[in-house]
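Progress narrative, work stream C.
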Amino acid sequence: MDDGHMHGMGGMAPTPPSTNGTTMTMMMHHKMMMHMTFFWGKDADILFNNWPGGKSGMYVLALVFVFVMAVLVELLSHTRFIKPGSNHVVSGLIKTLLHVLRVGLAYLVMLALMSFNGGVFLVAVLGHALGFFVSTVAFNKPPQNEGFDLPPISC
């Protein structure tokens, strides 16, 4: 530790003699601050460190990415991909693969929501709504005896 670096401390160096210790502590605290309540703005880290990086175009891309992931979660949850009478082993493998994909996307949407950004929250909810609408109304013919009740949530 005689070379001015603290090994094993994530690259944080001690306060230089010319810098006020309080100022340095506030700067380090500001860099590590996370929002724990909803906020609005493009200055958010979504899924990855420094992404979208405060740029408007990248923030919009991040919102589109979260929206598409939420739509895909709903499409994978409510669409039938296996025909009745298919080989049980092959259909089981396909169902397992689709389940892994759906759960992985759902976890990514959840992690994006943990940025506490209001825009991310809105696009995630709208993505789930659009995906549910498309998968249940546009693609599927409703059964004759089904009312307007929501289907049970299944994992």
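Work stream C, second folded protein:
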Amino acid sequence: MDHDGVLREFDRQMREGARADGLPGVRVERAGAVVRAGGSEHDWHGVLWSAPDLNEDAADAAIATQIAHFRSLGREFEWKLYGHDRPVDLAARLLAAGFSAEPTEALMVAETEALTADVELPEGLRLLPVTDAAGVELMARAQERAFGADRTDLSARLKVQLAEAPDRVSAVVAMAGDTPVSAARMELPPGTEFAGLWGGGTVEEWRGKGLYRALVAYRARIAAARGYRYLQVDATDMSRPVLQRLGFTVLSTTTPFTYRPQAPGSSGSPGARG
């Protein structure tokens, strides 16, 4: 894989050239030195891309402008910072402006066709395509057990996607009888070479049995049939070794920096967790 060439195309197609996902109210727009996205309360709000020539003098002004914009909307938002973004101290500038850093993940990419082979499931398990609200609820049950976190916003967003733009998302849940034990989804942005793998999670007692690999292969086959050349994933420290064994390559890192507007009458610096 041409590491630098694929990273350039990822930045061009998925960040600078990002498009709205076709859902009502979702917006992606160029605003000076950044590309930002937003929509309803359940949609993702934040900065997807910043200009590669953003310098120290312009960075603070760009940060302040985005804080003012999302504050005016009453929205918490995320600045999705990549390891190769400039200036080199952009992370420190975001922290100084009141953002909180989430754990850093690895931006990983693989050739789709290399991952389409069938994977044998453990006995008693089956993969169920998620196509409606009932399927989303099954996904949420599996992921809440896997991650120990509420999935309300993601579930609400996925229900709208399946209803309004089903060709741009694919989701699957692994069932042990009537119990959901693993789930994942894939974003299929039109006009790009990259399909995005998201949300893969397996409940603890079913880990280490090949389910993660099976869900990757399931989605790879769909992406290949739709003409996507690459699979892209933001990998945690837990999933990165598994993905490397499957053939994924690290292109960069990505760190979410979250800004939470200060509640009226509260004290502390803007964006503090409180």
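The longest helix spans residues 56-73. No further action is required on this item.
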